[in-house]
Amino acid sequence: MQQVDDAHTIIGFYTLAPHEYRDDEMDKETARFMRVQNLGRVPVILLGQLGIATEFKRKGLGKLLLKNALNRSLAVAHEIGGVAVITDPYDYDAQGFYTKFDFQVLHEEPFVRMLLPMRTLAKANIQGNAEAIITTIRSRKC
To answer: Percent of the chain, pLDDT > 70?
Structure first.
């Protein structure tokens, strides 16, 4: 594993921002699935950027950063509202990365936009916490 020589070296980053969709920007099937049809404005959290320094790529840091960003998004959504996390992957590799984490393509023109509903994220978070609790209980029995 590569070491960081400087405590101030940036090896990865992401940005989150509140965002909104208007009814006419979201297809009816997605709006119905997310239960936001006819709201006028749909609050979402925009994952604006997520990146890893070149020398640290392919070491699992992107997954860790995304997990942190999604956990923060879920917490923020409870405070300010938000029914989904959206992101605009810059290329096919990035799109493939987000697809592994259940992001779905919302539209492809004029650019690719992907979406992960908060209820999907909340369900995964609950299941992850339940699995961690079960693992802890099993380890105590040994």
So the answer is: 70
Cis peptide before 110 (omega within 30 of 0): yes
Q: Return phi, psi of residue 139, to 5°.
A: -70, -30
Sign of CA dihedral 88, 94, 99, 102: negative
Delimit the domains of the chain by residue range: 12-141
Dihedral angle of Cα 90, 128, 17, 75, to the nearest 10 degrees: 180
Q: Note the pLDDT tens digit of each residue in 28-77.
A: 776 666 666 666 678 889 998 888 888 888 888 888 889 889 989 988 88
Q: Span 12-141: which CATH code? A: 3.40.630.30
- Per DSSP, which regions of 23-81 are E strands? 41-52
Neighbours of 27 (CB within 10 A): 10
